[in-house]
Amino acid sequence: MRVFVLNKRGKPLMPCSPAKARHLLKEKKAIVVRRTPFTIQLTIATGESKQPVSLGVDAGYKYVGLSASTEKAELYASEVELRQGITDLLSARRALRRARRNRKTRYRAPRFDNRIRTKRKGWLAPSVENRINAHLSRIETVLRMLPVTKITVETASFDMQLLKDPDISGKEYQEGEQLGFWNVREYVLFRDGHVCQHCHGRLKDPVLNVHHLKSRRTGGDSPGNLITLCETCHKALHRGEITLKAKRGQSFRAETFMGIMRREVLDRLKASHPKLEVQNTYGYRTKHARISNGIAKSHCADAFCIAGNLGAKRLGEFLFQKQTRRNNRQIHKLSILKGSLRKRNQAPFEVKGFRLFDKVAYQGEEGFIFGRRSSGFFDIRRLDGTRISAGINYKKLRLLEKRRTYLTEIRKEEARRPLPEGRGLRA
């Protein structure tokens, strides 16, 4: 991978080869700024000739692909795995606050007028806002390392009703599947024929309940997440005496997110970088370019096609980044006096100078601390879960990088020869 270069003022220049970077460091004309990806900053004034650099962004719900390239070579490639636990954390916080208010403590009562959505237009759910900010954060990181002149983001819009019913047309879009029913419960009972979907009426229990296949917190109240059960089966299910064979209907959470962020990312990029060319493209163009040029499917490959420089030489490797929760912002934690359990096996925040998710080296291999003991032994793994050592003493570890919000490691990707001039789809 190329070495990224910053000028004396901290502005990005064109990257150089590792050999040239070693020469600059040896001559003390540059200093190391970042280890992964390796970045240096010049300590002397120099020429600043630049080439047009295009950045392609393959936006997604779980993964984000980025690729920056010139007409001749790919300069940067990364794949980012986003956090998926925002909803669970918010639900846990909501439960703690409700329990705290019901204990008649000194804390204030809920103020229903004190809501951010009533104060600011454009409010988005925290889980959506986090993913959009993650997209923008990764783009800003590339802009700090490379003199990007154009950004292309792949956006998509999904017709959720068409995905549910391929034969829908005309006024059926306005009617919906719950037309004529007072509420979702009434529709679910009608859909299931007012019959328990487990015993199918064999227990002859006249009382019917509507059960969430997944918790309402994660699955919602959509009809696909609801099923009719008689009261006998419903209670037996919650006692763990029976199991259901039915599965939740298709979820469109990812498609909904892509519809929300479709314009949001573009608008925010244009507002923060008015002098930069920002445009969008669509998935069918990316797919055509990838298939026409024989490129294997991956998030980095899609981002490379989105950037548009299909004749450029691929890097052959990319940065895999995993987003983690860096801080615990929970204001109040339950103590033993308030009904919580003592955490007997929890190690201190820092053990022998090492923290959770620090990047370390052990016997020539690089990994991250996924577990720690107060005695000074650590569980070292790669980001894909491969265990390097289950319990290694801190004396045998060497700290490479302190933990960051995005854990980064270099992975190999199958390289591709540059295409002859004039071939491929220039999108």
TrEMBL record:
* InterPro entries recorded: HNH, HNH_nuc, RNA-guided_IscB-like, RRXRR_dom
Q: Which Pfam families match?
A: HNH (PF01844), RRXRR (PF14239)
- Which UniProt keywords are given for this protein, alphabetically ordered? Endonuclease, Hydrolase, Nuclease
Which CDD domains does the annotation name?
HNHc
State the Gene Ontology terms under molecular function.
endonuclease activity; nucleic acid binding; zinc ion binding
Which portions of this protein are annotated as coiled-coil regions?
none
Gene3D superfamilies in alphabetical order: 1.10.30.50
- Official protein name in the record: HNH endonuclease
Which residues are in the HNH nuclease domain? Answer: 183-235
- State the superkingdom: Bacteria
Source organism per entry reads Parasutterella excrementihominis
**Record field: transmembrane:** none
